[in-house]
Each structure stands twice: as structure tokens, then as C-alpha cells.
Amino acid sequence: MYGLVVKDSLEVGEAFIKVERFENHLKYRRSMKGDVKEAILDKNAVVETRPTYSLFYPSFITGYILVAFSKPVVLSPKSSLRIQLQLPVDLALYAYSGDFYQLIDLVPLHSNYKYALYGPVISSVEAAGYIARLVKAEPVAEDTVEPLERHCLTRVLIVNKTQDFANVSKILLDAKPLKIFYIPGTWKCYTQDIKMVLNSSEHASVLYEEKPCKECTELEEPEEFKGLLRTLSTEMLWGY
Amino acid sequence: MSLLEPVLGFLKNPQLLSIIIALIIFSIGYFVALVIRRMVFKIGIRFYARNIASIVSKIIYYVVLLIALSTALGYLGIELTGLIIAGGFAGIIVGVALQPLMASFFAGLYVMAERIIQQGEVVSIGNTMGEVVEVSLMFTKIRTFDGVLVTMPNSQLLSTVIQNYSKAVARRLEFTVSIAYSEDAEKAYSVIKDAVDNHPYVLADPAPDIFVSKLGDSGVVITVRVWVPRTLVYPVTKDLLWKIKKSLDQAGVSIPFPQLDVWIKTPVTLKKEEGSG
Q1: Which residues of chain B does A61 touch, with a Cβ-Cβ cutoff of 8 Å?
Q2: Residue A39 forms part of a structural domain
Q3: Structural domain of A171
Q4: Would you give the DSSP letter of residue B126?
């Protein structure tokens, strides 16, 4: 569960987390597939769980997420459709003390972490564009969908401004402006709403919009995103 | 009235008045030079690198300052023609003497303006490969991967081939793996593909390319081409071939060593020596 204070132990998938409290310190230990991570914290610290962008395991190399749809979304000219996607997230363990926080561990919740190039391959040895974390998601048009465990629900309004049918098979998200929200004490996680405007057959703009629910708590900004200039939209220049 | 008298008397002195006016001219020139310098820097930084905008703004600043100084001195009646002519000759002599330095200076300007290489990029210049530490007007400093700091004059940059590995978003790596003729090539292909697909840093798109590239003397040569993020070329180069080798070993696919079959046309009689094993 997200927003959970780990007081004793916690089992998430193949990860076993244990927090031992001693007289003047805490001992954090996480084991997973033979990999062990340990930390010693002072007695004032509290260990809490959070959802986090699936961008930091095995290491942080990009802030972009390329969501490849399992089936295309087809829109007629000048039309719009709202779809929902389940984006994979990982589990972050933060040490808290008052308003201060520090990431102490990251538990990968998925099995296959891959990256892809969003952009053109200019020649057999030259490529341009962005490196993005590749995730596969099934677009669902029903509004009643709930977020799956280990996933964040993303609502995307696709607006086709072109005079032709549009076939949408992917969306590029920038994690820096994209906020994550969660409901403490549950596995429910959401991203802010997204609007994808199809401007031409090759170009789309992705805009980051509303908070998804009133009772949601916003995820603290990861260290990697702090101090970076962020845009309010992401331009998809090489097709969608 | 009695207080103003010395001031007015002071101003009636034409020499002192000229000095004051000359100082005012120089002060105005200094102020204008400062403003122009800031404006040029602010505009230049939008189009060029920070260091080149800074250099151009400084040059303009000193030129305006020089004009203000010569105007102020001219007002005082100091003749600058001789000084300018002497300066011109001195400039020619110094220019000839410092030709290599000037070549580096202008090469530095060109490299900065064109952003051929920038700080933090991984480059190969001539026989030197490493990370660019600094590009200044005269020299470029490169830290090689074994920690040696190489300083080269910028003029050298324009007369040699520069390979910049940091300009690409992703780079293609190529490996070759040889398997014995007796092995199942389909199985080997599948094992290699799994190893490549399971590596997180091998890009899923553009898709890896695995194919038989040669029927070699000792085995079937399989070429593996993968794309990886630019910053991860070294770790993937280290890791992937090792993982492929381990996967082939685990699957029981043998990698052949070079071997040569010798066919002898005429019959050969081999005699076994007494006492030999």
C-alpha cells in the first residue's frame, strides 16, 4: 500500500522489507531475489512507501515514458475520445522526518524494464529523438476502470484536429511535468489527466491537465527532477 | 557668495575645465560600453554558446572604451595619430610573431560558434579520446578515460578529424559470435535473442538485428546489432557479449576455436614407436 508507515515488516511481490527499531536508531533491510539492501536511520526517521515513476530502475537515464498501445485507437476527423491507460509504477521507500524526505530504496515491481527510441533512425548508424522508458498498455474507453495494483491510472483525452482519420498507437509522456497522485492506505495511484491533441498526421501535443481526484495526495518530487526547467507540454514530432 | 567664488574661479581655468569635460566624456563612454556589453551578451547568449557571447561582448566593450578614451584624450589636445600608427605597426609585428596563437584563437572562436565540441562531451580528436573538460579560446582540454589531462591548441582541432560521440541520442553496437557447424543454429539464434531482449539497456526500438553474416572457416558467424542509449555504450559493451557467452554455455551451444582439417592426397604410413603410450 502507498503512504504506509513501515513499522515492522512488509512483503511486496518478491521483496521482503523489514524495519527494526532500536533504542537510538532504525535498521532498514530489504531482500529480493538474493539482492539485499540495508540502511541505518536515526530514531526520528519514519519509513514510508510511495508509488514512483518506473524510471529509476535499473538506473535513471531518461525522464520520458513511451506508452505503446496494445491496440490502436482510431479517431474520425475532428473528433475526440477519452481513454484510460494503466502505467506501471515502482515502489519507493522514503525516510521522513517532518517536512524532509529522502529516498532510501526502490523496489522494482515489474519484470521487464526496456527502453526505446522515440524518433527517426536517420541511417543504419544514426538516430535522433528521445530515449524513453518503453511501457505497453491497453487503452480502455470505459470510464469505470480502477487503477490496477502496481500501476497508475492515466486518463487521456485524445483530440483529433486533423481533417483525416487518425490512428494512435503510442503516446510520449514527460515525467517532469507529469504529476503522480495516490490515495494513502491503498494501492490506488493516478497521474494527472492528459490531453493529446493531434495536430497533423505526424505531430501531436501532449498537455498535462487536471488533478484526477479530490482525495488524492500528490507525490513528492523526485530528486532527479528538482531544479529542472519543465515545459507544460510534450511535442510528439515523429508520429503517434 | 563667498563659497561659490572659488568654485567659479576653478571653472574659469580652461585647463581644468578641459580635464573635467574629458573625464565626463570618458565616463559616458564607459557607461555606454557597459550597457552595450550587457546587451550584446544577453542577445548573443540566445544564439551562441555562453563563452562565445561573453568573449564577443568583452571585445565590443574594450573597443567602445578605447574610442571613449581616444575621444577624451583628443579633447585634451593629446595627438593620437602617431600612437595609432605606431600601434598599427606593432600590431602587424605582434600578429606575425603570434601567428600560431592567433590561429588557435580564431579556431577557438569557430569551434565555440559552431558548437563542434562542448564541455562534457565524449570525443575523439586525432589519437586522443576522452571527455571534453574545457574549451577555451586558445586550448581545449580533454580528460582521457585513464585520467590523463590532454591540452591541445584549438588550431589542431581544425586540422584533424573530430569524432563526437555525444551528438547521437543512441548508438549502434555490433558483436559477432561464432557457433560450431555441428550446433543447432536456430537454437543459438533463440538463445542470443533472449539474452539481447532481456538486457534492459538494449533498445526495443530500433529492434535488435541478429543474423548469420558469414559461414566461416571454423564456425557459423552470427552478427548481433543493437542500439543503446549513448551514455550506456560502455556498460553494455562490457556486459552484453559476456551475457551472450554465458547464455550459449548454459544452453550447451559450443563456440568453436579456430581449426584446420588437413587432407593428405598420398597415403601416409604412421609407425607407432616402441614404448610409446
Answers
A1: 201, 229, 231-232
A2: no
A3: 54-89+110-236
A4: T
